[in-house]
Design goal:
This protein is mainly alpha-helical. The protein is built from seven helices and no strands. Among the domains are: 72 residues, Helicase, Ruva Protein, domain 3; 34 residues. 8% of the residues are buried.
Length: 164
């Protein structure tokens, strides 16, 4: 039994070592903390084009890694945050920005949720007004109403204790 446990322990150790060997390499420590802070600030404003629900700063996609590397090179070169954001929007469009500017091409993006909400409220109001104008016989009776249609309130035990 002890030999069997020893073999299992050795197999688990080898499996753990294999998993560690396949892990990604850790990111290098920041050479310049100010540059890295600017990198995080800029990449937090940019959408990962692969993930689309994450920023480039948070994404682990290969494209996000490449873009972070490219932004780091631009920062070392002395480009301003505005120049880097302009470069990214020129290259990938306004979609890359988490907060795209309000202009003609993004108007639907900004007004869309409000228009959908307004359309839903208007539809609800129209449906409720039409239903209010219909007579009671235009609606199908409930199943409970069919079963108790011929009975009086005294015949129905469930309704004896309730008040109308």
């Amino acid at each position: 039994m002890a030999e069997h446990l020893r073999k299992l322990w050795l197999a688990a150790l080898l499996a753990g070592a294999a998993l560690c060997a396949t892990g990604k390499e850790a990111a290098p420590a920041a050479e310049d903390p100010v540059l890295e802070a600017r990198l995080i600030e800029i990449t937090s404003e940019l959408r990962c084009l692969v993930c689309q629900n994450e920023t480039i700063a948070a994404s682990s996609a290969d494209l996000a890694n490449d873009l972070r590397r490219e932004i780091r090179v631009m920062l070392r070169r002395g480009d301003s945050n505005e120049q880097i954001l302009k470069y990214m929007t020129d290259r990938y469009g306004d979609f890359v920005l988490y907060r795209p500017p309000v202009k003609g091409t993004t108007a639907l993006l900004w007004a869309g949720p409000a228009l959908l909400l307004l359309g839903g409220v208007l539809t609800l109001v129209i449906v409720l007004r039409r239903r209010a104008r219909l007579a009671d016989d235009a609606f199908e009776p409930d199943e409970d109403d069919d079963a108790t249609a011929g009975k009086t309130d005294n015949d129905t035990p469930a309704r004896q204790g309730s008040s109308s």
